[in-house]
Amino acid sequence: MSCIFCKIVNKEIASNIVYEDEKVVAFHDINPQAPYHILVVPKKHISTLLEVTEEDKELIGHIYLVINKIAKDIGFDERGYRVVVNCKEEAGQTIFHLHFHVLAGRTMGWPPG
Ligand code: 5GP
Ligand code: ZN
Fold first, then answer.
1. Residue 94 in contact with ligand 1 by CB distance below 6 A
2. Has residue 111 been placed in a domain?
3. Where is this motif: Histidine triad motif (predicted)?
4. Separation of 78 CA from ligand 2 center, angstroms?
5. Is the pLDDT of residue 112 over 90?
6. 27 within ligand 1 shell (Cβ under 6 A)
7. How far is the CA of 20 from the centre of ligand 1 (A)?
8. Domain count along the chain
9. Which ipTM did the prediction report?
10. Active site residue 97
11. What separation, in Å, do the N-terminal and C-terminal C-alpha atoms of the chain show?
12. 79 is in which domain, residue-wise?
């Protein structure tokens, strides 16, 4: 499997992990776009949001609860944060393993560029 996020999940590539359980891993983005930029990744390889199915419903809900936990643990829950999923090339997806960007620590513009 050549997927870089599968390699991070399997610890074949090092990353700065902030949270892990049986379903997900969360780690700092290598090229942060905000003071806090964490990626939350399911351990199951799902290439894009479009490949999410009925059987993943609990997993997706779990990911949002993990995001809330990370926000509270690190302490950016008070000021707020943004969650982004880029789906396919035109939206900016470059790694084809589903991931949730969690961005915090600065004022965010809208709409995104
Ligand atoms: P995408 O553009 O697919 O939505 O987001 C991919 C993200 O993965 C980018 O923000 C990029 O900086 C990050 N990334 C790419 N390769 C690595 C890596 O090897 N380690 C970590 N921690 N982040 C990575
Ligand atoms: Zn993968």
1. yes
2. no
3. 97-101
4. 32
5. no
6. yes
7. 18
8. 1
9. 0.99
10. no
11. 32
12. 4-104
